[in-house]
Give the backbone structure.
Amino acid sequence: MRGFACAGVVGLVVLAGCGGGGGGGGGASVAPPASGYPGGPASCEVTGHRAWLRDYMTDRYFWYDKQGVPNAAAPSMDAYFDSLLYRPTDRYSYSESTASANQFYVDGTRTGYGYAMDWLDAARTTLAVQWVEPKSPAGLAGLQRGDRIVSINGQSSAGIANGGLTAVNTPGVARTFVVRNAAGTQRSFTVQSATYALTPVNTVAVLTAPNGAQTGYLMYQEFIASGQVEMGAAFDRFRAAGITELVLDLRYNGGGSTQQARYLAGLIAGSAQIGKVFAHFQFNAKNTARNFTQNFVGTSGGLPTAPLDNLARVIVITSPDTASASELVINALRPYKTVVTIGDTTYGKPYAFQPEDACGTTYNAVNIVVANANNFSDFSAGFAPTCAVADDLDHPLGDPAESRTAAALGFIQSGSCPPRGSVAKSLPNTASRGFGDIRPPQMRVD
Protein backbone atom coordinates (compact mmCIF):
# COMPACT_ATOMS: atom_id res chain seq x y z
CA MET A 1 0.00 0.00 0.00
CA ARG A 2 2.89 2.35 0.67
CA GLY A 3 3.50 3.72 -2.82
CA PHE A 4 7.25 3.80 -3.17
CA ALA A 5 7.69 0.74 -0.97
CA CYS A 6 5.59 -1.25 -3.40
CA ALA A 7 7.80 0.12 -6.15
CA GLY A 8 10.78 -1.52 -4.50
CA VAL A 9 12.49 1.12 -2.37
CA VAL A 10 14.86 -0.85 -0.16
CA GLY A 11 14.65 -0.55 3.61
CA LEU A 12 11.39 1.28 4.13
CA VAL A 13 9.50 -0.31 7.00
CA VAL A 14 5.96 -0.99 5.81
CA LEU A 15 3.88 -3.15 8.05
CA ALA A 16 0.77 -3.27 5.89
CA GLY A 17 0.70 -5.14 2.60
CA CYS A 18 0.82 -3.65 -0.86
CA GLY A 19 -2.20 -3.71 -3.07
CA GLY A 20 -5.91 -3.34 -2.77
CA GLY A 21 -8.70 -4.89 -0.78
CA GLY A 22 -7.17 -8.32 -0.48
CA GLY A 23 -8.29 -11.85 -1.06
CA GLY A 24 -6.39 -15.01 -0.25
CA GLY A 25 -4.50 -17.09 -2.75
CA GLY A 26 -5.08 -20.82 -3.06
CA GLY A 27 -8.31 -20.87 -1.09
CA ALA A 28 -11.67 -19.24 -0.74
CA SER A 29 -11.32 -15.48 -0.74
CA VAL A 30 -12.52 -13.52 2.25
CA ALA A 31 -14.47 -10.36 1.52
CA PRO A 32 -12.55 -7.32 2.75
CA PRO A 33 -14.13 -4.70 5.00
CA ALA A 34 -16.25 -2.17 3.17
CA SER A 35 -13.41 0.37 3.25
CA GLY A 36 -10.76 -2.03 2.00
CA TYR A 37 -8.58 -1.50 5.08
CA PRO A 38 -6.03 -2.97 5.92
CA GLY A 39 -5.44 -3.12 2.20
CA GLY A 40 -5.84 -0.15 -0.09
CA PRO A 41 -9.12 1.77 -0.30
CA ALA A 42 -11.92 -0.27 -1.83
CA SER A 43 -12.75 2.84 -3.83
CA CYS A 44 -11.11 6.19 -4.50
CA GLU A 45 -14.54 7.75 -4.68
CA VAL A 46 -14.93 10.22 -1.80
CA THR A 47 -17.10 8.04 0.44
CA GLY A 48 -14.90 4.97 0.03
CA HIS A 49 -11.69 6.93 0.46
CA ARG A 50 -12.96 8.53 3.66
CA ALA A 51 -14.15 5.20 5.06
CA TRP A 52 -10.70 3.72 4.46
CA LEU A 53 -8.99 6.69 6.10
CA ARG A 54 -11.18 6.46 9.20
CA ASP A 55 -10.46 2.74 9.55
CA TYR A 56 -6.75 3.35 9.14
CA MET A 57 -6.69 6.12 11.73
CA THR A 58 -8.76 4.07 14.19
CA ASP A 59 -6.18 1.31 13.96
CA ARG A 60 -2.78 2.95 13.42
CA TYR A 61 -2.99 6.58 14.58
CA PHE A 62 -0.98 7.04 17.77
CA TRP A 63 -3.85 8.95 19.42
CA TYR A 64 -6.54 6.68 17.95
CA ASP A 65 -8.68 7.04 21.07
CA LYS A 66 -8.61 10.85 20.98
CA GLN A 67 -9.39 11.51 17.34
CA GLY A 68 -11.23 14.59 16.24
CA VAL A 69 -14.80 14.45 15.00
CA PRO A 70 -14.77 13.65 11.27
CA ASN A 71 -16.01 16.57 9.22
CA ALA A 72 -18.47 15.14 6.72
CA ALA A 73 -18.65 18.55 5.03
CA ALA A 74 -14.87 18.82 4.52
CA PRO A 75 -14.21 20.17 1.01
CA SER A 76 -11.18 17.92 0.38
CA MET A 77 -9.49 14.76 1.60
CA ASP A 78 -6.74 16.89 3.15
CA ALA A 79 -9.36 18.80 5.15
CA TYR A 80 -11.11 15.58 6.12
CA PHE A 81 -7.83 14.11 7.34
CA ASP A 82 -7.16 17.25 9.34
CA SER A 83 -10.52 16.90 11.10
CA LEU A 84 -9.50 13.46 12.39
CA LEU A 85 -6.37 14.69 14.16
CA TYR A 86 -5.99 15.10 17.91
CA ARG A 87 -5.60 18.85 18.21
CA PRO A 88 -3.78 20.75 19.59
CA THR A 89 -1.47 17.96 20.79
CA ASP A 90 -0.93 16.70 17.26
CA ARG A 91 0.79 19.59 15.50
CA TYR A 92 2.80 17.14 13.42
CA SER A 93 0.58 15.03 11.13
CA TYR A 94 -0.04 16.21 7.59
CA SER A 95 -0.96 14.96 4.14
CA GLU A 96 0.66 15.64 0.79
CA SER A 97 0.59 14.34 -2.73
CA THR A 98 2.37 11.02 -3.14
CA ALA A 99 4.30 12.53 -6.03
CA SER A 100 5.67 15.21 -3.71
CA ALA A 101 6.60 12.67 -1.02
CA ASN A 102 8.41 10.47 -3.53
CA GLN A 103 10.19 13.45 -5.03
CA PHE A 104 11.77 14.33 -1.69
CA TYR A 105 12.57 10.88 -0.30
CA VAL A 106 13.17 8.85 -3.46
CA ASP A 107 14.49 11.40 -5.95
CA GLY A 108 16.17 13.77 -3.48
CA THR A 109 14.78 16.79 -5.29
CA ARG A 110 12.42 19.69 -4.69
CA THR A 111 10.53 21.98 -7.04
CA GLY A 112 10.59 25.70 -6.33
CA TYR A 113 13.20 28.40 -5.84
CA GLY A 114 15.26 27.06 -2.93
CA TYR A 115 15.46 29.69 -0.20
CA ALA A 116 14.17 30.48 3.29
CA MET A 117 14.05 33.75 5.23
CA ASP A 118 13.77 35.09 8.76
CA TRP A 119 13.24 38.50 10.36
CA LEU A 120 16.38 40.57 10.71
CA ASP A 121 15.11 42.96 13.36
CA ALA A 122 12.99 42.84 16.51
CA ALA A 123 10.40 45.15 14.97
CA ARG A 124 9.91 42.66 12.12
CA THR A 125 10.31 45.17 9.34
CA THR A 126 12.95 43.42 7.23
CA LEU A 127 13.29 39.85 6.08
CA ALA A 128 16.72 38.46 5.31
CA VAL A 129 17.82 35.21 3.69
CA GLN A 130 18.45 32.39 6.21
CA TRP A 131 19.73 29.72 3.87
CA VAL A 132 19.81 28.83 0.19
CA GLU A 133 19.89 25.41 -1.46
CA PRO A 134 23.10 25.57 -3.57
CA LYS A 135 21.69 23.86 -6.69
CA SER A 136 18.36 25.68 -6.65
CA PRO A 137 17.36 28.52 -9.01
CA ALA A 138 17.93 31.05 -6.22
CA GLY A 139 21.29 29.52 -5.32
CA LEU A 140 22.50 29.48 -8.92
CA ALA A 141 21.42 33.12 -9.25
CA GLY A 142 23.72 34.05 -6.38
CA LEU A 143 21.22 34.65 -3.58
CA GLN A 144 23.21 34.63 -0.34
CA ARG A 145 22.56 34.11 3.35
CA GLY A 146 22.09 37.57 4.88
CA ASP A 147 20.76 39.28 1.76
CA ARG A 148 18.05 41.75 2.80
CA ILE A 149 14.75 41.41 0.99
CA VAL A 150 13.68 44.66 -0.63
CA SER A 151 10.88 42.93 -2.52
CA ILE A 152 9.91 39.65 -4.13
CA ASN A 153 7.47 39.95 -7.02
CA GLY A 154 6.74 43.44 -5.79
CA GLN A 155 5.89 42.28 -2.26
CA SER A 156 7.68 43.91 0.67
CA SER A 157 8.65 41.99 3.80
CA ALA A 158 5.29 42.84 5.35
CA GLY A 159 3.44 41.65 2.26
CA ILE A 160 5.39 38.39 2.19
CA ALA A 161 4.69 37.80 5.89
CA ASN A 162 0.98 38.39 5.24
CA GLY A 163 0.86 35.72 2.54
CA GLY A 164 1.46 37.88 -0.49
CA LEU A 165 3.52 35.20 -2.25
CA THR A 166 1.70 32.09 -3.41
CA ALA A 167 3.33 28.71 -3.00
CA VAL A 168 4.90 27.35 -6.18
CA ASN A 169 5.39 23.64 -6.77
CA THR A 170 5.61 23.52 -10.56
CA PRO A 171 8.55 24.45 -12.80
CA GLY A 172 8.68 27.53 -15.00
CA VAL A 173 7.08 30.16 -12.77
CA ALA A 174 9.03 33.41 -12.80
CA ARG A 175 9.85 35.22 -9.55
CA THR A 176 11.69 38.55 -9.36
CA PHE A 177 13.91 39.32 -6.38
CA VAL A 178 15.21 42.72 -5.32
CA VAL A 179 17.79 42.25 -2.58
CA ARG A 180 20.43 44.28 -0.80
CA ASN A 181 23.53 42.75 0.73
CA ALA A 182 25.00 43.66 4.11
CA ALA A 183 27.30 46.20 2.44
CA GLY A 184 24.28 48.02 0.98
CA THR A 185 24.62 46.96 -2.67
CA GLN A 186 21.22 46.38 -4.25
CA ARG A 187 20.49 44.15 -7.22
CA SER A 188 17.53 42.63 -9.01
CA PHE A 189 17.22 39.26 -10.72
CA THR A 190 14.49 37.00 -12.03
CA VAL A 191 14.53 33.20 -11.86
CA GLN A 192 12.18 30.45 -12.96
CA SER A 193 11.05 27.80 -10.50
CA ALA A 194 12.61 24.43 -11.31
CA THR A 195 13.14 20.94 -9.99
CA TYR A 196 16.58 20.83 -8.42
CA ALA A 197 18.73 18.35 -6.53
CA LEU A 198 18.94 18.85 -2.78
CA THR A 199 22.29 19.18 -1.01
CA PRO A 200 21.89 17.42 2.36
CA VAL A 201 25.55 17.95 3.29
CA ASN A 202 25.49 21.70 2.93
CA THR A 203 28.79 22.85 4.46
CA VAL A 204 31.85 20.93 5.65
CA ALA A 205 34.87 22.62 7.22
CA VAL A 206 37.75 21.98 9.59
CA LEU A 207 38.05 24.88 12.03
CA THR A 208 40.53 25.67 14.76
CA ALA A 209 39.12 26.48 18.20
CA PRO A 210 40.80 29.22 20.27
CA ASN A 211 42.60 26.53 22.28
CA GLY A 212 43.98 25.01 19.07
CA ALA A 213 41.62 22.02 18.94
CA GLN A 214 40.97 20.83 15.40
CA THR A 215 37.21 20.96 15.05
CA GLY A 216 35.02 19.44 12.39
CA TYR A 217 32.02 21.52 11.26
CA LEU A 218 29.13 19.85 9.43
CA MET A 219 25.97 21.64 8.37
CA TYR A 220 23.49 18.84 7.60
CA GLN A 221 20.27 20.00 5.97
CA GLU A 222 18.03 17.03 5.08
CA PHE A 223 17.98 13.41 6.20
CA ILE A 224 17.57 11.76 2.82
CA ALA A 225 19.43 8.86 1.21
CA SER A 226 21.08 11.01 -1.45
CA GLY A 227 23.25 12.59 1.25
CA GLN A 228 24.75 9.35 2.50
CA VAL A 229 27.89 9.34 0.31
CA GLU A 230 28.68 12.98 1.16
CA MET A 231 28.09 12.19 4.85
CA GLY A 232 30.77 9.53 4.68
CA ALA A 233 33.14 11.82 2.78
CA ALA A 234 32.73 14.52 5.43
CA PHE A 235 33.73 12.14 8.21
CA ASP A 236 36.66 10.84 6.17
CA ARG A 237 37.83 14.44 5.88
CA PHE A 238 37.46 14.92 9.63
CA ARG A 239 39.43 11.75 10.30
CA ALA A 240 42.23 12.81 7.97
CA ALA A 241 42.39 16.22 9.67
CA GLY A 242 42.67 14.61 13.10
CA ILE A 243 39.72 16.47 14.61
CA THR A 244 39.09 16.09 18.33
CA GLU A 245 35.86 18.12 18.46
CA LEU A 246 32.74 18.20 16.26
CA VAL A 247 30.19 20.96 15.67
CA LEU A 248 27.06 19.54 14.03
CA ASP A 249 24.87 22.29 12.60
CA LEU A 250 21.21 21.19 12.49
CA ARG A 251 19.70 24.64 12.93
CA TYR A 252 17.50 24.43 9.81
CA ASN A 253 17.11 20.66 9.55
CA GLY A 254 13.45 19.71 9.88
CA GLY A 255 14.03 15.96 9.79
CA GLY A 256 13.54 13.11 7.35
CA SER A 257 14.65 9.49 7.26
CA THR A 258 15.34 7.74 10.56
CA GLN A 259 17.80 5.48 8.76
CA GLN A 260 19.96 8.44 7.74
CA ALA A 261 19.67 9.83 11.27
CA ARG A 262 20.92 6.48 12.59
CA TYR A 263 23.91 6.59 10.24
CA LEU A 264 24.86 10.14 11.24
CA ALA A 265 24.49 9.38 14.95
CA GLY A 266 26.52 6.20 14.52
CA LEU A 267 29.44 8.04 12.94
CA ILE A 268 29.52 10.32 15.98
CA ALA A 269 28.85 7.65 18.62
CA GLY A 270 31.91 5.61 17.67
CA SER A 271 32.58 1.96 16.97
CA ALA A 272 32.24 1.05 20.67
CA GLN A 273 28.48 1.62 20.35
CA ILE A 274 27.92 -0.73 17.38
CA GLY A 275 25.16 -3.15 18.37
CA LYS A 276 23.92 -0.92 21.18
CA VAL A 277 20.50 0.73 21.15
CA PHE A 278 20.05 3.66 18.81
CA ALA A 279 16.30 4.04 19.41
CA HIS A 280 13.14 2.24 20.47
CA PHE A 281 10.09 2.67 18.19
CA GLN A 282 6.82 2.29 20.09
CA PHE A 283 3.34 2.11 18.54
CA ASN A 284 -0.08 2.73 20.08
CA ALA A 285 -1.69 0.38 22.59
CA LYS A 286 -3.40 -1.60 19.78
CA ASN A 287 -0.13 -2.29 18.02
CA THR A 288 2.46 -3.04 20.68
CA ALA A 289 3.39 -6.23 18.80
CA ARG A 290 4.82 -3.93 16.11
CA ASN A 291 7.28 -2.24 18.48
CA PHE A 292 10.90 -2.60 17.46
CA THR A 293 14.39 -1.40 18.32
CA GLN A 294 17.16 -0.24 16.01
CA ASN A 295 20.81 -0.54 17.03
CA PHE A 296 23.87 1.35 15.88
CA VAL A 297 25.54 -0.36 12.92
CA GLY A 298 28.98 -0.47 11.35
CA THR A 299 29.98 -0.28 7.72
CA SER A 300 28.61 -3.78 7.09
CA GLY A 301 25.23 -2.48 8.27
CA GLY A 302 25.17 0.50 5.92
CA LEU A 303 27.37 3.09 7.65
CA PRO A 304 29.06 5.05 4.84
CA THR A 305 32.47 5.05 6.56
CA ALA A 306 34.02 4.05 9.87
CA PRO A 307 32.85 5.98 12.95
CA LEU A 308 35.03 8.53 14.68
CA ASP A 309 36.27 7.01 17.93
CA ASN A 310 37.88 10.00 19.64
CA LEU A 311 34.87 12.26 20.23
CA ALA A 312 33.93 12.59 23.89
CA ARG A 313 31.21 15.07 22.98
CA VAL A 314 29.39 16.74 20.13
CA ILE A 315 28.22 20.34 19.96
CA VAL A 316 24.94 20.72 18.08
CA ILE A 317 23.69 24.05 16.75
CA THR A 318 19.90 24.20 17.10
CA SER A 319 16.84 26.37 16.50
CA PRO A 320 13.04 25.94 16.45
CA ASP A 321 13.56 24.52 12.94
CA THR A 322 15.62 21.65 14.40
CA ALA A 323 12.98 18.96 14.41
CA SER A 324 12.11 15.31 14.35
CA ALA A 325 14.99 13.21 12.94
CA SER A 326 17.40 16.00 13.98
CA GLU A 327 16.10 15.77 17.54
CA LEU A 328 16.35 11.99 17.28
CA VAL A 329 20.12 12.33 16.69
CA ILE A 330 20.44 14.49 19.81
CA ASN A 331 18.33 12.16 21.94
CA ALA A 332 19.96 8.96 20.65
CA LEU A 333 23.48 10.21 21.41
CA ARG A 334 22.79 11.44 24.94
CA PRO A 335 23.13 8.02 26.65
CA TYR A 336 26.61 7.66 25.14
CA LYS A 337 28.12 11.12 24.59
CA THR A 338 28.02 14.58 26.09
CA VAL A 339 25.74 16.61 23.82
CA VAL A 340 26.05 20.39 24.09
CA THR A 341 23.43 22.47 22.25
CA ILE A 342 24.05 26.02 21.05
CA GLY A 343 21.29 28.28 19.74
CA ASP A 344 17.61 28.06 20.55
CA THR A 345 15.04 25.51 21.77
CA THR A 346 14.28 22.81 19.21
CA TYR A 347 10.85 22.13 17.69
CA GLY A 348 9.83 19.23 19.94
CA LYS A 349 8.82 16.17 17.89
CA PRO A 350 9.51 12.79 19.48
CA TYR A 351 7.03 11.16 17.09
CA ALA A 352 7.43 9.42 13.74
CA PHE A 353 5.35 8.46 10.73
CA GLN A 354 5.06 5.31 8.69
CA PRO A 355 3.41 6.97 5.69
CA GLU A 356 0.39 5.45 3.98
CA ASP A 357 -0.46 6.11 0.33
CA ALA A 358 -4.02 6.09 -0.91
CA CYS A 359 -5.43 7.39 -4.18
CA GLY A 360 -2.47 9.67 -4.89
CA THR A 361 -2.28 11.13 -1.38
CA THR A 362 0.31 10.27 1.26
CA TYR A 363 -0.94 10.44 4.84
CA ASN A 364 1.77 11.24 7.38
CA ALA A 365 -0.13 10.49 10.58
CA VAL A 366 1.80 10.07 13.82
CA ASN A 367 2.16 6.32 14.38
CA ILE A 368 5.12 6.03 16.73
CA VAL A 369 6.87 7.64 19.67
CA VAL A 370 10.65 7.25 19.52
CA ALA A 371 12.72 6.77 22.69
CA ASN A 372 16.46 6.52 23.25
CA ALA A 373 18.40 3.75 24.99
CA ASN A 374 17.28 5.16 28.35
CA ASN A 375 13.64 5.04 27.17
CA PHE A 376 13.47 8.83 27.19
CA SER A 377 11.05 10.40 24.70
CA ASP A 378 9.54 13.28 26.67
CA PHE A 379 10.73 16.20 24.59
CA SER A 380 7.58 17.50 22.90
CA ALA A 381 8.50 20.93 24.30
CA GLY A 382 11.86 20.70 22.53
CA PHE A 383 15.41 20.57 23.82
CA ALA A 384 16.44 23.82 25.50
CA PRO A 385 19.90 25.02 24.49
CA THR A 386 22.91 24.64 26.74
CA CYS A 387 23.88 28.11 25.51
CA ALA A 388 21.17 30.43 24.17
CA VAL A 389 22.69 32.27 21.21
CA ALA A 390 20.84 34.18 18.50
CA ASP A 391 21.24 33.41 14.82
CA ASP A 392 23.58 35.63 12.85
CA LEU A 393 22.53 36.18 9.26
CA ASP A 394 25.45 38.50 8.54
CA HIS A 395 27.94 35.63 8.30
CA PRO A 396 27.97 32.44 6.20
CA LEU A 397 27.27 29.11 7.83
CA GLY A 398 30.52 27.59 9.08
CA ASP A 399 32.24 30.96 9.39
CA PRO A 400 34.10 31.05 12.75
CA ALA A 401 32.79 34.62 13.16
CA GLU A 402 29.12 33.54 12.86
CA SER A 403 27.58 33.92 16.30
CA ARG A 404 26.51 30.33 16.96
CA THR A 405 29.64 28.84 15.44
CA ALA A 406 31.77 31.28 17.45
CA ALA A 407 29.91 30.27 20.62
CA ALA A 408 30.58 26.60 19.86
CA LEU A 409 34.30 27.24 19.34
CA GLY A 410 34.39 29.32 22.52
CA PHE A 411 32.71 26.52 24.46
CA ILE A 412 35.40 24.13 23.26
CA GLN A 413 38.02 26.41 24.78
CA SER A 414 36.33 27.44 28.02
CA GLY A 415 33.52 24.97 28.67
CA SER A 416 31.16 27.89 29.26
CA CYS A 417 28.57 29.89 27.35
CA PRO A 418 29.28 33.37 26.01
CA PRO A 419 27.81 36.30 27.95
CA ARG A 420 24.27 37.04 26.80
CA GLY A 421 24.20 39.69 24.11
CA SER A 422 27.89 39.44 23.29
CA VAL A 423 27.38 37.49 20.07
CA ALA A 424 23.69 38.01 19.26
CA LYS A 425 23.47 40.05 16.09
CA SER A 426 19.87 39.21 15.23
CA LEU A 427 16.80 37.65 16.75
CA PRO A 428 16.74 34.05 17.83
CA ASN A 429 14.76 32.02 15.33
CA THR A 430 11.05 32.23 15.96
CA ALA A 431 10.03 29.17 13.96
CA SER A 432 9.48 31.50 11.01
CA ARG A 433 10.77 29.17 8.37
CA GLY A 434 7.37 29.70 6.79
CA PHE A 435 8.93 32.28 4.48
CA GLY A 436 10.34 30.75 1.32
CA ASP A 437 10.45 27.13 0.19
CA ILE A 438 9.79 24.86 3.16
CA ARG A 439 8.73 21.41 4.29
CA PRO A 440 7.02 20.68 7.60
CA PRO A 441 9.06 19.04 10.36
CA GLN A 442 8.93 15.30 9.90
CA MET A 443 10.45 11.96 10.76
CA ARG A 444 9.84 8.88 8.65
CA VAL A 445 10.71 5.44 9.84
CA ASP A 446 12.69 3.37 7.35
Notes: DSSP finds ten helices and 22 strands in the chain. The first helix runs from residue 3 to 6. Residues 1-29, 422-434 have pLDDT under 50 and may be disordered. The first strand starts at residue 94 and ends at 97.
